[in-house]
Design a protein that fits this description.
Helix content is 71%, strand content 7%. By secondary structure, it is of the alpha+beta class.
């Protein structure tokens, strides 16, 4: 009896239970910092930004000169020039337009990098709170298994001395087996969520660590209208789509530049050791067999398609914000419902069952049912807490803002 009572006390205070310590205690911000340094997708995106910067620098330089070497092989008129150097001056605007396209594409790549960065931060936060939830459920299942084992031992002793039917011992043994299975599943879930976070941090999946931050309810007051407006200004996906639209429109002008005359400087050496001189050449694109005309139609269609993609991104951003706001509200309402009475009522029910068992007013099955109810309520509560934290991370991602910025703005109202 004393063993069962002591075990029930442990269950009723399960929120204070602590899992076996891990090698390293990892805070949420520390996890984010590691991911920003080591996540392979983010490292790849940085390389894309470097490549886009090099492409812009290349586009801004003058076109390379063309050097033609044509030595005579036979006869004096085999070639008019032994050496001819032609340098396009690109006064038709092609260089400026080429640079504009490369700069817009670099801006789009930079925005894409910020999108990857925001994705990584969101994923790390959500994985972190998944681990916190899984760890608490492991604690619950561990304590539940200890209670089930204590009840089984008591029922077995009572059955052995004939003070209780053997069916109670069998039922208790079945319950103990189920409790062990629940614990094994929750431990597997915890290991899997830890492996996911390690992968996001760019380190081996089996790297051991514990959590420094606890799963707790810290309500945030938010203004949906302000967040919708901020999403329009801050989401990098919109900046990426807009930059690509700028590049596609510039490609139309690049095709038009091919229709305009251009100047070249030519250096000519008639024969090796012979006369040499400089000349100014003019290219006159008078004829077009269709390549320029069709290229312009292609560029116009591409720009129109990108314009429609930009509008689609705007609609998606608005939907993301609305969905995140709904999930924040739903999970917050659920937490408040638990804290207003469901938790305390479940704890009261378990306490009443414990007292009744001690006085002989009820049997162990009633104690077990009360503990099942308490465990289910606490599991739901931990799930709601994790859902709220993950919803806030989703809201940050959807608005392109950090939650600390959201809080500070709301606090200043």
């Amino acid at each position: 009896m004393r063993l069962i009572t002591a075990t029930l006390a442990v269950i009723l205070s399960i929120s204070a239970a602590i899992a076996a310590p891990d090698t390293t205690s990892l805070g949420l911000q520390e996890a984010i910092d590691i991911a920003l340094r080591q996540n392979p997708n983010l490292l790849a995106a940085r390389s894309d930004v470097d490549a886009a910067g090099a492409n812009e620098r290349s586009a801004s330089t003058l076109a390379n000169p063309e050097v033609i070497v044509s030595p005579n092989i036979a006869g004096e008129s085999g070639s008019d020039s032994a050496v001819l150097v032609v340098q396009p001056l690109e006064i038709n605007g092609s260089r400026t337009i080429r640079t504009r396209i490369a700069r817009a594409e670099k801006d789009a790549t930079g925005a894409a990098y910020r999108s990857v960065e925001r994705d990584v931060i969101r994923s790390v936060k959500q994985a972190y709170w998944d681990i916190a939830q899984a760890r608490n459920i492991v604690d619950l299942n561990q304590a539940n298994m200890e209670l089930a084992d204590a009840l089984y031992q008591a029922a077995k002793r009572q059955s052995d001395v004939g003070s209780a039917p053997g069916a109670q011992a069998i039922k208790a043994q079945v319950e103990l087996s189920r409790a062990r299975q629940d614990l094994a599943r929750s431990e597997s879930d915890l290991a899997q969520t830890k492996a996911l976070l390690n992968t996001l941090l760019g380190r081996p999946a089996e790297t051991p660590f514990g959590l420094a931050d606890e799963l707790a309810f810290d309500p945030v007051e938010i203004d949906g209208n302000k967040l919708r407006t901020s999403a329009e200004a801050n989401r990098p996906e919109l900046a990426e789509a807009q930059s690509l639209l700028t590049a596609r429109k510039a490609e139309i002008k690049a095709v038009d530049a091919r229709r305009r005359p251009d100047l070249t400087i030519q250096a000519r050496q008639e024969t090796f050791g012979g006369d040499a001189g400089l000349a100014v050449g003019i290219t006159l694109p008078l004829l077009d067999w269709g390549s320029i005309r069709h290229d312009r139609k292609r560029a116009e269609a591409t720009a129109d398609a990108q314009s429609k993609r930009l509008e689609a991104v705007r609609n998606t951003v608005a939907l993301d914000v609305d969905s995140a706001l709904r999930e924040v509200g739903r999970s917050r309402t659920l937490i408040e419902e638990y804290e207003r009475g469901v938790l305390s009522q479940a704890e009261q029910l378990a306490e009443m069952a414990q007292k009744g068992y001690k006085t002989g007013a009820n049997n162990y099955l009633e104690v077990l049912e009360a503990q099942r109810t308490l465990r289910a309520v606490r599991t739901g509560y931990y799930t709601a807490l994790a859902d709220y934290r993950k919803a806030l991370a989703q809201l940050e991602w959807a608005t392109g803002m950090d939650i600390s910025v959201i809080e500070s703005k709301e606090g200043a109202k």
